[in-house]
UniProtKB/TrEMBL annotation:
A GO MF label: ATP binding
GO cellular component terms, semicolon-separated: cytosol
UniProt-listed Pfam families: AA_kinase (PF00696), ACT_9 (PF22468)
Keyword line: Amino-acid biosynthesis, ATP-binding, Diaminopimelate biosynthesis, Kinase, Lysine biosynthesis, Nucleotide-binding, Transferase
Protein name in the entry: Aspartokinase
Signal peptide: none
EC number(s) on file: 2.7.2.4
Amino acid sequence: MIVCKFGGSSVASKEQFEKVKRIVEANANRKFIVVSACGKENCDDYKVTDLLYLLHAHINYGVSYETIFSLVKEKYQRICGSLALKIDLEKEFASIKEMLDTHAPVDYIVSRGEYLTARCMAEYLGAKFLDAKDVIAFKYNGDFDFEKIKQNLDRLVDMNRKYVIPGFYGALPNGQIKVMSRGGSDITGSILANITDAEVYENWTDVSGILVADPRIIDNPQQIPVITYSELRGMSYMGANVLHDDAIFPVREKNIPIHILNTNEPDNPGTFIQDDCQEYDKANGTSTVTGITGRRDYASFTVVKSHSSTEVGFLRRLLFIFEEYHISVESVPITVDTFTVIVQKGAIEQCKYEILAKIKKELEPDELMLEEDLAMVAIVGRGMKQVPGASGQLLSEFGNHKINIKVINQSADELSVVVGVSNHDFHNAIRCIYERFIQEEREHA
């Protein structure tokens, strides 16, 4: 049994609905179809979810929402009309408007995009519609209630039928709708795959799998055929956003592979994400580097104090200062008596001088430096631990291209190396690693 999730670009128009139908009908095992709200049909169009958040803001500020409401309504009327669907949109939108006029919660409002898309898709596919509020259960603390979700599915589902379920939202124990963070439809599909013990979780989007590097930096970067969950986590944390981070955990728990596929190129093999890649590596060899990603605009606070490495609790006291200001710490490289705390630059914009003053007062450092021109480049690869001196080769490549390294951080499992460079060296750093460890290795394979 296969769980499929189709993103917003895959359900943005009549033509995209038709592609989804061909994909679903091509494999009888595709039983659960999760859909996002309609995305952009073209560059001048709007994402339905963006419109719904804007609509809520208008209501909040007492401004007329009729124009935005009409845009959403017209989007679904256009799709339904072109596909000759019989869903009573007038009734659906009348019900939504009634809720809007009684100051509906934001979660209800923004969930209507997925709800309406799923209603339309269910009719078009001849499948049964399941409202996510009747399936995806939250606890009051915001955690998913997996036991309740399983009970809901056992009660509502006949495995001989196909079902379409809206992504992105579920319900609290009192029945109130609760949404996930943006991109949450990925999580809905992942949870359903977990509960139903799916053979595979297919995530259909508008890219053909996961790329080795950002195509805005590397022209036509190679596609990654197979990647581990840990490698993907390393890449996505540092900026490669193909899949919602939280969608990994439910399927990883049961070792269910995720298959990233392109709705517009269904014959492309895409990328498999799975825990065990040994079989693939034995047949095809293991690349030293699986992927290269990163982000610009980090800041580093470097604290130097004699004998601090032997001072019990020194690091805890330093990190507590950032916690007081609700700053998430990205990394903490340490050498003897020198501690560097790396954070996102935007997070400290309003409080950096207060943090510096607090560090001086609380820790009395010999030196204290703030660096705000920092980009972090993550080189990820399960093959690195099999290559003696892989880290040295990576660092040498930066030196060969006259890129100054400011920070180095490597995990003990040798799965990733994170290097800090100047913002202006960011693109060049990614290019030089790609050319040396991706292009050259593939050319000589």
